[in-house]
Amino acid sequence: MRLLFVTGPTPSNVFALAPLALAARDAGHQVFMSTVRERTSVVTGVGLPALAATTTPLADLKATRRSGEREHVPDDVDHPEFIRYTGRWFGRVAAESLVTLREVAAAWRPDVVIGGPHAYAAALLAHELSVPWVRHTWTALDTRGIHIGSEAELAPELGRLGLDRIPPPAMLIDNCPPSIRQADAAPAQQIRYVPVNSQCTTEPWMYTPGERRRVCVTGGSMAARDNNFELIRSMVKHLRALGAEVVVPAPQETADALRAEFGDIRAGWFPLDVVMPTCALVVHHAGGLTGLTATLSHVPQLLLPQEAKVRESSRLVGAYGCGISLLPDEATEDRVADALEELLHKPSYAERAGDLAREIDGMPAPVEVLDLVTSLA
User: Which residues fall in a coiled-coil region (predicted)?
Assistant: First the structure.
């Protein structure tokens, strides 16, 4: 059977869909994974055949409307207009991707199309081909309001297909464990989270705990953005004062800046799933995959969500007891310092992370979910 995976424009989109795609490939199915041009190396890096669905630089798709007008990007990420703006540029990615995916489908017709939470080209291509569409989301990324912006941008494509909105999927898959899933989230087929990262040649320090408590600080794949970089920088300063060993998985630009300032920290793009079991704590931006990776290693979390779309999921992690969540207006110098001390010294956080890890272990494995996906065709 032929399975086409369509991801969104960030590395985390690739990593989230990769467990199911790799299970399909291991089972003998033909698998392609489509993404924006800038992320094809991430796809090939996890061992999957990549399709470059766009040619326009991602920065231009974000900045320019289809009419040629410059986008207005709201300064306030909490404003509803920012969500609609996000939906519009996701829509532009989908419109351009659809052109390439139609050409692919003319020679390699998929039996099922599996798309990330806002990879709308998957929905439109599947409708056009009359094949099942599966939506694969994770943790907090089912953001309300994004559909509205995307549907407005995709009006020409929807109209040509006789649609007035993005069609619903035949199946929704979600890897969020039930205990920290939002109560009003749409019903979904559970799938066990399996960490998949870009890899490198491992070094002994990566899998060997140091003499000091090791704390991982990360802003995820978007750590080069100003707000996340300053967040990382401030956390490094706090943790050095506590005598912790700090490791920072980050893009090269961010790693170089941190080493230039602090000198003795380990920073770079090393595999989170390898390093995490050696850590006593992870401090992060409330990234869903980062949090799940930490949970599987029974590592407590300090979550510092910057964007509204991840704040509820961050709150649920804190309420469960495996971490502390601080909103931007709560993350004062004193409150952060107290949270770090509490997480490093109070064993209940690691114990609750272990409870959640066992819940994840009991969720259906990707190969089990694969059988349900292929049965749709």
Answer: none
